[in-house]
Structures are given as structure tokens and as C-alpha cells.
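Sample 1 of the test manifest.
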Amino acid sequence: MNQHAAFTVPAGLWTLAWRRLRADRVAMLALAVVGLFLLSVLLAGAGLVAADWEDEVAVNYAPPGFVGPDPALAALARPALPAPPNAFDPLAGELAVLQGELARRGGGVQAPKAATLPFGADKWGHDVLKKTIKGGQTSIVVGLVAALVAVALGTLFGAVSGFYGGVVDDVFTWFYSVFTSIPSILMILTVAAVLQARGVATIVLILGLTGWTGPYRLIRAEYIKHKAREYVMAADAIGASNWRKMFIHIFPNVSHVALVQMSILVVGFIKAEVILSFLGFGVPVGVVSWGSMLNEAQNELILGKWWQLAAAAGAMALLVTAFSLLADALRDALDPKLK
Amino acid sequence: MLPYILRRLWQMLPTMAGVVVLLFVLFNWVGGDPSYLLAGKMADARAIANIRAQLGLDQPWTVQLWIFVKQILSFDFGNAWSTGEPVSHILSSRLGPSLTVLVPLTLLETVIGIALALAIAFVRGSLTDRLVMVACTVGMSVSILVYIIAFQYGLAYKLGLFPVQGWGEHFTENLLRYAALPILIGLAVSIAPTLRLFRSFVLDEVNQDYVRTARAKGLSERRIVWVHVLRNAAIPIITHVMSNLPALLIGAFLLERFFGIPGIGREIILAVERSDFPVIKAITVYVAAATMVFNLLADLMYQAVDPRVQLA
């Protein structure tokens, strides 16, 4: 027997999972992409990028730089000429005073509007690239927070249900069967109809309150399995309370299930937010999200202005692909048995 | 068999009661007083009191719950608030258009999904297999909205291969002319997740002992996959398709909305937009009931195709 082996601490679940994940090149690439998106969310949230997305910096529907300027829009790019003096204008005197005031404050000169932008402009001349980053911030934050709420609820219910068993379990399982008998999209629409307030918090609430069933089922099964294990009996023997056993002793051993569930839910919730906002049941007017961008882009496409659609759809597809690949890899790395 | 069915139906009662109470709580307490919504902007106290009396909102909550239960059992939810159309008529007349799109879509999706999944099973683990799976992940990542907008713009508006939207009087015209593009888009959207799922069902089977036995007695790989594996993989596939049918009825709401198909899905979007609570309540209750019944049907079919399964 090797003397050393007795003293080395065996690698834990997370270390092993990280090693498996590191070996998976696709997963690492996906992780990098997701990381970049999260970074852009943080920067946008801190106001460091895309804070000025609402500035009308270009002509309406300015095409992307690689397409070249649209000659039909050239006239719009020039700053408006001052109106010729009109002898009959009753407000001429007051206007002259106001314009003098403007010029004195340095706001009189309008910046010339760009004819093209790196990825074009929307109906109002907003930079589509910045708008996509800002919209991504809304969609990703909604997806992450809603998934956190759903997993937290599912874990709490699943833990109580699986740990106590008996009547408590019966009640929660009944609750679960009630929620799963209503298709999730119908549940989401029903709750959206009842909660009249439109807002980011409302969507998070809707998605979080309807999405807890998946995590509940798996976490409950884990708790049923774990509550009879020796380490829980040991905790019992030293007088640990039930809540301590559930969340200090057992939870770390089932937290990987919660993490995998959360990564799966984020993908679904980002898609759901986009659909809700597209239909007008999601973010309020004035807040941009990928869904509200797609809503505008639908009408722009008929005019041949495809860039807002391409930007929102492309950014979303890239993030969701990366997130799905990462979720799959996480599942494989953390729990090879879990399907 | 019969005692089993009766017991399952009996077990549905508490779940159904839960659905009823959940909806009752949502619409009567969480949602606030709908009479303010109905009375409009220029309402006075008397108009609101009138509406409250009409809806039974001035009654104790037990009476209100009983009214709701009676509505469900008698299929009579009164008239829609926004249009005045009887809710029962909305349900019965919107079902046909929905099914015109959904039945062909489900059949095609299942058949194509099975064929592709079995074909992939031949080359499992190969580069083709991995590429197809990556393509599926990418395909699933594009929002269904993008599929619909792009297909409707490209195939219908630009190329004129299909009508941009519309719905007619006759079944054949609807099916062949108006439902064709929605069905095509539905297929494009659903084939990736379906293929991924069916592939996992098939791959669960190919490592079983009976496959090795079949191979050992000299059967061709083709016969093994198409006859032996297919019959066993059919079990989870049938269960999946059956229990998903009621959800599909709602899931097609985006297709119905974009293509102007007067189905159940479009109706629920309209009802949510107009805060038309009776319509939403009715659709939710009956879809939930249908989900439970179809789950039971799926279990019964499960036993029909697999004699090993004993329903007890």
C-alpha cells in the first residue's frame, strides 16, 4: 500500500466535473461564447457599453457598412437647412431669441447623421449593434433570474417533499400534477392575462412560477435517495435539525442536479421571453429586448430592411446554441447517469 | 382493463379539482376585480355594481366557485366579454382549423422523425451522426419567430409559392392551400427536437440483448433496425406523441396568428390581448382535462404495443 495515497484527498465531484469539462473542446468554446455574452450584459448593465443606444446617430434605416449607403437616403444625411425667412411668421421674433439661446449653449449645431453604420440602423436611426447588446441584456437577465427563481422553488419544494415524505409529499406531488396537466405555454399565457402589469419583473415572475416542475421532480427523487444515506444518519445522530440536514448536508450533494436544470431552463426561458415580448405580453414599451426587436423587424422586412432581424435572430441563435451545448456538456460532466 | 381505466379516471378527480381551484384563485383573487375592466373608462359606481351582480362577484366565494364548476360541467361559460360570442361556439368552431394544421403536422413529423432517427442509428457515433446532432442544436436555437417570419416572407411574399395568409370555407382548400406553409414551417421547427428525442429512444434499444441475438443469427443490419429495433422504440415514441397532442393545440398559436388561421391557439392570444377571461378559463380547463385523458390513452396504448407492461 502506497503511503502517499492514504493522505491525498480524493478529487471531489466539482473537480472531476471541471476536468471532464476541460477535456471537451466544444464545451469550452461554448463556455467562452456564453462568457462573452454575460460580459456584455455586465458592461451594458454598468452603462459602459450601449448606454447611448437611443441616440439617433444615423439616418432612418441606414444600411450596414458592408452593404454601402442607400442613395435614396442621402438627402436625410445632410443636416436640415434653416428655413428661409418668412415675413408673415408671427413667431419669428420669439424663434430668433430661442435660436440665439440655443446657439449660445452650444446645442444649435446638429451632428450630421451617418449614412451607414457597422450593422445598420432601425426606423429611428438607432445603432442596431448597440440595440442588440441592450436587448440581449434584457433577454438574458430575464432568462437567468427566472431560471434562478424556478430552480429555487423547485429545489425547496423537492427537498421538503422528498425529505419528509408522507402527507407532505402527497400534497406537493398533487400540486405538481396540477401544474403539469396544464401545458406550460398555456400556463404562461394564462398568468400573463391575469397579471395586467407589463414589466420585466412580471415576466420573471410568470416564468419562474410556472417553470419549477422540472427541477422539483428531479430534486425530489434525489432527496428520497439521499435521506437514507449514512452521512444523513450521522448528522441526525449529532442532533442536526431537519433544515440543517436538508440544506447544509444533503443539498451540496444534489446541487449539480439544480445547476444542470438551471442551465436547461435558461435556454427555454430566453426563448419564452422573446415570444412573450414579441406578442406584447412581455417587456413594456420603451424597454428593448430581442423579442421587441423581432417585433419591429417583422414589419421592416417587407421594406427590405433585414438587418435588425438578422442581428437579433443571429445573436439569440448564437447564445442559445452555446448555452445548449454547455448545458449538455455540464449534464454529461456532472451526472453521466442523468438523461 | 376496465377496472384500471375506472381507477385512473377516479385518480384524475383530485388533479382536476386542483386545476379548477388554481384557475379560480388566479382569476378571482390574483387578477383583481374584472368588473373594472369590463365597465370601461367612464364607469360609475352603479355600472360596476351591476356588472359585479351579473358576474356573481357579489356572492360569497363558495358560490362563485360553484358557478365555475357548473360552467365547466355544462360546457357553458356564457358569452365572451369582448365579442359577445358564446364561448362554447368559440371552442367548437375553432377546433376544426387547428386540427387541419395539427393532424397532418403531427403525422408527418412522427413519420419523418422515425425514419431519420433509424437512419442515424445506422451511422451512430460517426462524424455524420455528430454533425446532424450539432445541426439539430443550432436549428433548435433559432427562434420559432425567425422561422415563421423568414419562411412567410421568402416563400409566400417574395416567391409567391403560398398565400401569405388566409382561411377559406372548404376543408380541402384550407388543407392544400392555406395550411401547407404553416405545416411546412411547423415541420422545420419541430424536426430537430423530435429527431434528437427519437434518436435517444432508438439508441436505448440498439444495445439490448435481443439486438445482439438477432445479429448473431445472421439477420441483416437493415432488418434488425427497421423491424426489431423499430417495434421496441415505438413504445416511448407513441407515449411521447400521444401525451403531447393537447399541448400542441396551444403550441401552434404562433403559426395560427401569423397565418390568420382561426384556431384555438390564435383565439387564446386574442383572449389574452383583450383580457377575455371566460375564453381563457374555458380553454385552459378543457386543455388540462384533455392532457390527463391523453396521458391515460398513452398508457393504454403502451400496454397494447408492449405485452410486458402490466397495467395494475
